[in-house]
Amino acid sequence: MTCSLFHPGLLLIFSGLLIPFIHGFKRTLFILIIPCLSLLSVWSMPFGSDCSIQYLDYELILINLDSLSRLFITVFAITVFTAGLFCCKQASSTELSAAYVYAGGAMSVVLAGDLISLFIFWELMALASTLVIWSAQNEKSYKAGMRYISIHLLGGVILMCGIASYVYETNSIAFTHMQLNSISTWLILCGFLLNAGAPPLTAWLADAYPEASYSGMVFLSAFTTKTAVYVLLRGFPGTELLIYIGLFMIFYGIIYALLENDIRRILAYSIINQVGFMICGIGIGTEMALNGTAAHAFTHIIYKALLLMSAGSVLYMTGKRKCTELGGLVKSMPLTAICGIVGALAISSFPLTSGFISKSMITQASIDEHVLWVWLLLQAASAGVFLHAGIKFPWFVFFQKDSGLRPTDPPINMKISMVFFAVICILIGIFPNILYNILPYNVNYQPYTVAHTITQLQLLLFSGLAFFIMLPLMKRTLTISLDFDWFYRHLAPILTQIVVNFLLNAQQLVNRFLISLKSSLSFDDKLDYQLSIGKSVGLIIFFFSILLLCFVVL
Amino acid sequence: MKQNWFYRKSSIKKLYISALIILGVVIFVEYFIVLHPHFNIEKIFGFHAVFGFLSCVGLIIFAKLLGFLVKRKDDYYDM
């Protein structure tokens, strides 16, 4: 093994494993220093490949650094630091440890130069993120975690099949730009898209993330979907299919968030919505679009974490997370409200916030390509984002009716981390060049033209008007919305029950038949003994033939 | 207890009036600036405002209708 440099991802993974053995103030110090070291090491590395390991006949490359991977590592490290600060005093060591391994896995995926090491860290992320969900330690999170890991292991199997056949076809394990011309690249694409929350298996995200603890979801929101965006950016830029998938995700996210009552689930749906913008940008595939996607991933991770920290503070202080139970918290939690509103404005790409300077690049790319319908849909979606996340979240939590709850702002470490991210959101919004200078391609784009600022304000403010005019239609109800997970949460158990009942009935029939056979013959101890053996042998043969039948049918 | 500023009747009225003024300003400022439309459809006066408003109304109505189909009590899966 040759590795001359400090690997930022492995550093996080190993220090994550050490967290349970450190306590008190030392633990706080430790979890704050480690992400800083990761950040330092990635910025002191030269671009290029490093850290190669011989595995079987292949040479794995653990570090393949360029401006795109450096951008993602940077935002991951900043998020780990801030989320770590957010929960350093309260969170359990299990959760922190799992979260650090998870973040380290995400960084290692981003740095991986070949498909095998990418897959290994991809699966590590799936395992560690499940542990983050389970760290909430209640029955709901246990069940949600089981569903989450099942879906992700399925995605892992699909990805593994794709990678194995890709390596067989091309004789190379290098992770580069791929063409959708064989079943192997299709399988790889499906594996990647599953983690991005693409249809049809979109439901895992809004099902599992909100069941994590108040702080666990901050970690969860940042890594899985964004590493998927990263690998798609690298592997499949300019794949037209991704435009349609992205647009579907954008509108799916908005519609389901509008129907939702749980504030953390609203934010989960809006992750899918925002990732949809990125996938759409990857599909457009021009330099402007890819820059926009990378920039949007960067800003999105930060303002989404900010929104989730705000929602997490509300959950931590009140124990409640439903719109119907909350409201009027602006009085007693002013700082949480302000930070939540900054995050909400940033996600709606309001001028002077980070979302404005990143999402505008993706819409500009659709203008440059002269695709009117994509542009119109993106504009409608931008209006819709303001509707479901920009106004709905702050309105139902901090304003609307007075819920009678009077929680105070959260502890100081949570306040500092929220303010820190709120400041970054505004800073990047005012000085876009901070971000533009570290993007993969040269940026030749000026977001703050008078025309663009005014049209964006028109779009957003009139969406706001629509929200308040339609408010009676938006009345929250104590409901959930059925999604694709209905098939495996509701239909599959019912079908299993039917099959089990059928088998039990069949067994009873056989028993009755044997008993009647026995009573029709004369009583004989020997015969009785033989029958009891015959009964069990018969049962085994019976079940075996059913198994065979299933096998033949499948 | 003293009512919060946001919940006083007088301030709600002030908020409404200032909101309407802002909405008016962002539309009528179009008279004074050049918008550089990229597509023909953008040349319609106040296009972005109308488009934003209508797409939101559309989304809310669509969500409401879809709600009749997919909404269930929130203990649906616990039963």
Features:
heterodimer; A: 554 residues; mainly alpha; 20 helices; 3 strands; 72% helix; 3% strand; B: 79 residues; 2 domains; 56% helix
Characterize the overall form of chain B.
Answer: flat
Alpha-carbon Rg of chain B, integer: 20 Å
Q: What share of the residues of chain A lie within helices?
A: over 70%
The counted number of beta strands of chain B is 1
* Unreliable parts of chain B: none
> What is the largest interface, and how many residues per chain?
A-B, 49 and 44 residues
Q: How many structural domains are formed by the residues of chain B?
A: 2
Mean pLDDT of chain B: 84
| Biggest pleated sheet of chain A | 2 strands, antiparallel
Note the beta-strand portion of chain A. under 5%
Number of domains of chain A: 3
Query: H/E series of chain B, N to C?
Result: HHE
Q: Quote the distance from N terminus to C terminus of chain A.
A: 46 Å
Record field, number of beta strands of chain A = 3
- Enumerate how many helices of chain B there are, as a single number: 2
State the helicity of chain B in percent bands. Answer: 55-70%
- Which radius of gyration of chain A do the C-alpha atoms yield? 27 Å
Structural class of chain A: mainly alpha
Low-confidence stretches of chain A: none
Biggest beta sheet summary of chain B: none
Describe this structure in words.
Chain A is mainly alpha-helical and 554 residues long. Chain A folds into 3 domains: 1-228, no CATH class; 237-471, no CATH class; 485-553. Chain A is built from 20 helices and 3 strands. A two-stranded antiparallel ribbon of chain A has the order 1-2. Chain A is globular, with a radius of gyration of 27 Å. Chain B has 2 domains: 1-33; 39-73. Chain B has helices at 9-28, 47-70; one strand at residues 71-73. Chain B contains 2 helices and 1 strand; from the N terminus they run ααβ. Chain B has 79 residues and is mostly helical. At the A-B interface, α10, α15, α18 and β3 of A face α1, α2 and β1 of B. β3 of chain A pairs antiparallel with β1 (71-73) of chain B, so a sheet runs across the interface.
